[in-house]
Specification:
CinA-like_C, Maf protein
Length: 171
């Protein structure tokens, strides 16, 4: 993450910035179960910039809906940095509008708890971010119960996208 300050209502500011910059976003979610998409579209006018969201909670759907490599899923399971990266890259193109991929793809995968999953403890989360020609993951270690981990994942994803676009000059 960069040192850009995050505003009090980061989601409203994110939607405003995306709109000002004419950028679109697509969301792929696992542990957040639609919470990130819901957070984005709670802002009036979000339909101008939010292409949509895909909740791929089951591991197989990460492959069939988002194009995550099945060998990666077989080897590491759904909670892995490269899975987050491939989810973010996949949702950009899967939720294209008029043949144009979303400018930004963001993804959430991790373990909200209460139990470990695939050897990963609750609170292990990976965010994926993708733009044309580049994609990366952000590892998070979050504390709290299931609801707190999911809420923190949503907040961190909003902050990550906000910081990504805030550091770029306006064209």
């Amino acid at each position: 993450m960069t040192d850009q300050p995050v505003p009090a209502d980061a989601t409203a500011e994110l939607i405003a910035e995306l709109t000002r910059r004419s950028l679109t976003i697509a969301v792929a979610e696992s542990l957040t179960g639609g919470g990130l998409t819901a957070e984005l579209i709670r802002i009036p006018g979000a339909s101008v910039v939010v292409n949509g969201g895909v909740v791929a909670y089951q591991t197989d759907l990460k492959h069939t809906l988002l194009g995550v490599d099945p060998a990666l899923l077989d080897a590491y399971g759904p909670v892995h940095p490269q899975v987050a990266v491939q989810m973010a890259a996949g949702v950009r193109t899967r939720l294209a509008v008029d043949g144009r991929p979303a400018d930004i793809g963001v993804a959430t995968t991790g373990v909200a708890g209460p139990d470990a999953q695939g050897g990963q403890e609750p609170g292990i989360v990976f965010l994926g971010l993708a733009r044309q020609g580049e994609a990366w993951s952000i590892p998070l270690i979050l504390n709290g119960d299931r609801a707190a981990i999911r809420a923190a994942s949503v907040a961190q994803a909003v902050q990550a996208v906000y910081q990504l676009i805030a550091r770029e000059p306006v064209e």
